[in-house]
């Protein structure tokens, strides 16, 4: 049985990198006595994969991990057992059966994600920035240079920002996410601050990922069903 786990990552856990989160989950699954399947061969390891790894320093209400179960367990019991062994800042939200198909792999399904962004107190741009941000979003194109470890390329962010709004100093955005065009909210905000001539201080942004979606704006959680 293939299962998708949805979890929150908050508080000090935002400083824990993806590889350490993977190791942590392996230990938590063993402590919770979840009968997970292992690969075969000389060096067996848990069948465990994550969707769209979260950057260090970001919090999230919608992170996902896929596992393969050997022995079925009810969703309610699995959530209870896992939360009993979770550290502060990590919370299991759901535990759902998903179709056992390659196409259902969380990592390959990711297409977009919702984010909430706020400026740390005293680090926001001058008054009137909210209106300027909305005007920035209305531009026909938003050209930026995206740098990777191996190269850099100019790209247009506009078609990859599916939604952007601001209310009471809180910015909400839906961005293209995944292996093809993975746009980070930091890239959008850096482009905006350059546009208005504001020198964005380091660590000025507090970013929370709200949800991750497959094509059609369907959350990865909604692709599964609770186990009775």
UniProtKB/TrEMBL annotation:
Domain DUF2344, residue spans: 2-185
Protein known as: DUF2344 domain-containing protein
